[in-house]
Amino acid sequence: MPSLVPAAGGAFPASPLRSLPVVDVAFLLPHLAVALLIHPFLLHVFIIIIIIIFFFFHPLLIPSLLLVSRHCGRMANLSGKKSLNTVTLVFKLPYYTQWGQSLLIAGSEPALGSWNVKQGLSLSPVHQGNELIWSGRVSVVTGFTCQYNYYVVDDNKNVLRSESGEKRKLVLPEGVQDGDVVEIRDWWQDASEALFLRSAFKNVIFNGSENAKRELKTTPLNKSLEPEDIVVQFIVSCPRLGAGSTESPWRGAGVAVPIFSIRSNEDLGVGEFLDLKLLVDWAVNSGFHLVQLLPINDTSVHGMWWDSYPYSSLSVFALHPLYLRVQALSDAIPGDIKDEISQAKKQLDKKDVDYEASLASKLSIARKIFKLEKDKVLNSSSFKQFLSENEEWLKPYAAFCFLRDFFETSDHSQWGRFSQFSKEKLDKLVSEGTLHHDVICFHYYIQYHLYMQLSEAAAYARKKKVILKGDLPIGVDRNSVDTWVYPTLFRMNTATGAPPDYFDKNGQNWGFPTYNWEEMSKDNYGWWRARLTQMAKYFTAYRIDHILGFFRIWELPDHAATGLVGKFRPSIALSQEELLSEGLWDFDRMSRPYILQETLEEKFGSFWTVIAANFLNEYKKQHYEFKEDCNTEKKIIAKLKNSSEKSLWLEKEDSIQRVLIRDPEDSTKFYPRFNQEDTSSFNDLDEHSKNILRRLYYDYYFARQENLWRQNALKTLPVLLNSSDMLACGEDLGLIPACVHPVMQELGLIGLRIQRMPSEPNLEFGIPSQYSYMTVCAPSCHDCSTLRAWWEEDGGRRSRFYQTVIGSDDEPPSHCTPEVANFIVKQHFDAPSMWAIFPLQDLLALKDKYTTRPAKEETINDPTNPKHYWRFRLHVTLDSLLDDKDIQATIKELVTSSGRSFPGKVDGAEESGEKLAKVQLNGKP
Questions:
Q1: Whole-number average pLDDT of the chain
Q2: 5: which of 45, 721, 740, 861 is 20 to 30 A away, CA to CA?
Q3: How far apart are CA 87 and CA 173, in angstroms?
Q4: Which segments within 748-857 are labelled E, that is strand?
Q5: 402, 734, 695: which is closest to 563 by C-alpha?
Q6: What's this protein's family per the entry (predicted)?
Q7: Residue 460's closest CA among 258, 257, 271, 276?
Q8: Alpha-carbon gap, residue 282 to 545, rounded angstroms
Q9: DSSP secondary structure string, 579-605?
């Protein structure tokens, strides 16, 4: 027992209460302790009384209290009670932190904070050679067992970073004795190393990989060996060691195609969920472990072909009725309905998807089958279970669809008393006693069958060791179920988009409201977690659309039409004080459209006065601004709809001819207009002001936001990643802040590399052989032209690619020949990227017989067109592709020669019983 050190001078502090001498108490206490042994249960009561006396009466009782502890402890030992045996645990972990960061351990037991990070075990750093070792010690009882993890925290113990993967587990063996010191040396678990614990690998690719035929048989050893001569041969399956391979990390390949683009012998003018089984078969035959899709949620907002846009969700939970196979709704479809289905097949078998006709036909047929089957289906245990497990989103969705059709608009602000969602109103809308209950049940019925059909396809893919990869859109339509039910989660007076980039020099305006992240954080992003949980029912991997939006989003006012007048949210604005300190004071001059009389005369000649009278006000001499009825992009577009072509120049002026964007919520804050040097407003400034604005522009877009955006992503992305065990990939194209790739690496997020859109600013074409492992590489994607179309678009670029990448000084062919396609595709197969995923159109370019269709028609999306019709449909059926053994063999040869894994291949350690890691364990068998 440690002794209590007296205060300076050798005595304990004096006390004002002198009536109770300490020597008398010390004399009596041992006798009291002996007496208490007769009634041991009184011991704790007695100690509590002493503690109370200590706190309220006399500080001189401190030594007496120690005496009680000592005497009671000795007497307890004499009575046969044993003290607990303790062991000292010493945790050590090498890790380099930044200034203001430290490490701690939190675990399942009280000694490690019971998972409360702020009460965890703090570690201390010590430099050892080139390493920074963090260590800490804690005393525990022998036989101690716990789970634990390491955390990087700030000075207030707020978590900045946590380990990925499964929780660590510590079990002390029986041989550890009282007083022993046990040292635990750990290494930080990077997220990239935990990828192979995700469902894509665990439940699909590596599931059921055991091969009993390859089991090594044991043989009796008739020879005596010393321990140092024994070498244990074993197989390691660990991401650090290439997941079992002694040669290189695991790599796989996949094919990407939207469901609506699939053509089969069974579909009604558009691909269907059950067609995925054919696609999986083709993927397996071609050597692919993955099938990637576009979003599959219901987008029925407008009731027309505009809804073909798969990223504008009506509901983030409901599946799209477009992908329903009506033939599978019942085993007893009457002959007249079968005839109708056959007729619809012929009518809808077109070159491209007829979105409106296909959807209308399917819903019409489904309603007829529903009338015949509703009682049977709605009373089935399977349906009841589906309704019970999904009612939180399914009932609001069905009610929304009913109200949308009743009011003939999805704009819920036009729904009168139903504009504001409430649980009470919902319960009445979906109750059984209503006249429209069959309508509600029909929506349940459709979603139930979509769930059943997609689940069947997903189970088939897992059985074939093929990953289904979904797509998580960044936004939802402003007239959606989600904005109706959860309006506080969205900033409805704003829109989401992207600044000018490779896709569009005017930027993009997607129209979705931005997220109210502050409100979402109050329930730990429950809406997002529910989305990922729902996706994980079908997918084992997913693509995060526009992952940059989780760092910062390009936010536009709701009156914007293009992506030019936006600002990043969150971001540190330029304050009025900051601008004044830099000598910039004319805020109106820089934040208003800069329209001069001389510019009007130059553009319109003598007609300029008519233009000015109709559209402009002169706010100071020879300086003009737009009138109230056309002072936003949308107002200008509306007013100019029937104007002369020449006057359309005005359409660009409101957004282009300004240098600063004033914050609509705080007029003292400003944001540099993107590409500000392209404006006449900037060019007419003096050189001093130009230089200041250039510096502030660079600081705003490339410097001051980095830490803010990093911390913002680390608040939200880990929640998404921990909501399911799906493999996550991020679409990180466009203007990439410096913080993005380090954060993605920390979190184990796989990036995207498109050869024609290199992330390196000084390259025209990416170099696949130099891509990092944690990437998906692809020659194209749905947001750009296909390989064949890209080759034909720009002759100069084609020649540069042919010379610098292919390495030929000859004149390149005007069309992308199978030889050129093979070269580019092989480049991507051979890349170090974990995944090489190819649009199906680019793979078909490997054979002349599939290149008869004009290349431009294979493009899925044109990002420059906000009303693009998403209707591309393959010109060949999956059935015939499955019959084409030649193209499947060609692709599989590219897969196998690149060393990538393929279904049927025994990967890593199981590939050969002879490939064994030989490790000598310090002479111990």
A1: 85
A2: 45
A3: 12
A4: 751-754, 775-778, 835-839
A5: 734
A6: Belongs to the disproportionating enzyme family.
A7: 276
A8: 26
A9: HHHTT---HHHHHS--EEHHHHHHHHG
Confidence at 925, pLDDT banded by 50, 70, 90 = very low
- pLDDT at 299 > cutoff 70: yes
Question: What tokens were used for 321?
Answer: 């009725």
Calpha distance 805→108 (Å, rounded) = 55
Helices (H) and strands (E) in the chain, counts: 29, 31
CA separation for the pair 810, 6 (Å, rounded)? 94
Nearest to 482 by CA among 517, 442, 528: 528
Name the residue ranges covered by the structural domains of the chain. 1-82, 86-189, 567-691
If DSSP states are collapsed to H, E and C, what string results for 264-323? CCCCCCCCCHHHHHHHHHHHHHHCCCEEECCCCECCCCCCCHHHHCCCCECCCCCECHHH
**Half-sphere exposure of 436 toward its Cβ, with a 13 Å CA cutoff?**
14
User: How many C-alpha atoms does 434 have within 13 Å on its Cβ side?
Assistant: 15
**Preceding amide of 903 cis, omega within 30:** no
State how far the Cα of 141 lies from the Cα of 157, in Å rounded to an integer: 27
Most confident of 157-161, 231-235, 390-394: 390-394
Tokens 């060609």 sit on residue: 890
Assigned CATH for 86-189: 2.60.40.10
Question: What is the rounded CA–CA span in Å between residue 192 and residue 833?
Answer: 13
DSSP string over 535-578? HTTT-SEEEETTGGGGT-EEEEETT-SSSTT-EEES--PEEHHH
What whole-number distance in Å separates Cα of residue 168 and Cα of residue 150? 9
Give the separation between CA 468 and CA 452, rounded to whole angstroms: 16
CA 209 to chain CA mean position, Å: 29
Run of H or E residues at 128:
strand 124-128
Question: What is the layout of strands, in order, in the sheet containing 616-620?
Answer: 595-596, 623-626, 616-620
Averaged over 116-128, what is the pLDDT?
93
Place of tokens 């829109």: 495
Q: What is the pLDDT of residues 544-554, one digit of tens each?
A: 999 999 999 99
The secondary structure element, H or E, covering residue 132 is: strand 131-141
Q: Could you tell me if 29 and 71 are in contact, meaning their C-beta atoms sit under 8 angstroms apart?
A: yes
* Amino acid in position 712: N
pLDDT band for 164, please (50, 70, 90 cuts): confident
The pLDDT of residue 90 is above 80: yes
Side chain identity at 118, as an amino acid letter?
Answer: K
For range 107-111, the mean pLDDT:
93
Q: Do 4 and 66 form a contact (C-beta atoms < 8 A)? A: yes
Q: 231 vs 521, which has greater pLDDT?
A: 521
Residue 297: CB atoms within 10 Å: 24
The rounded distance, in Å, linking the Cα atoms of 572 and 585 is 19
Residues 603-621, mean pLDDT to the nearest whole number: 85
Asked if 766 and 758 touch (Cβ cutoff 8 Å), the reply is: yes
Max mean pLDDT range (233-247, 356-370, 600-614):
356-370
User: d(Cα 477, Cα 510) in Å, to the nearest integer?
Assistant: 9
Between 177 and 69, the higher pLDDT residue: 177
Distance CA 900, CA 881 (A): 22
- Which whole number is the average pLDDT over 13-40? 43
Q: Which residue reads 């006249």 in tokens?
A: 435
* Cα 912 to Cα 906: distance, rounded to the nearest angstrom: 8
Q: Quick check: helix, strand or coil at residue 8?
A: coil
Give dist(CA 344, CA 365) in Å, integer. 10
The owner of tokens 């990223």 is 311
Looking at the chain, the whole-number percentage of residues with pLDDT higher than 70 is 83
Kindly state the tokens that stand for 723: 């909501």
Q: What is the mean pLDDT of residues 823-833?
A: 98
For 821, list phi and psi in degrees, rounded to 5. Answer: -60, -40
| Total count of residues recorded for the chain | 925
* Peptide bond before residue 173 is cis, with ω within 30 degrees of 0: no
**27-36, 161-170, 889-898: least confidently modelled range:** 27-36
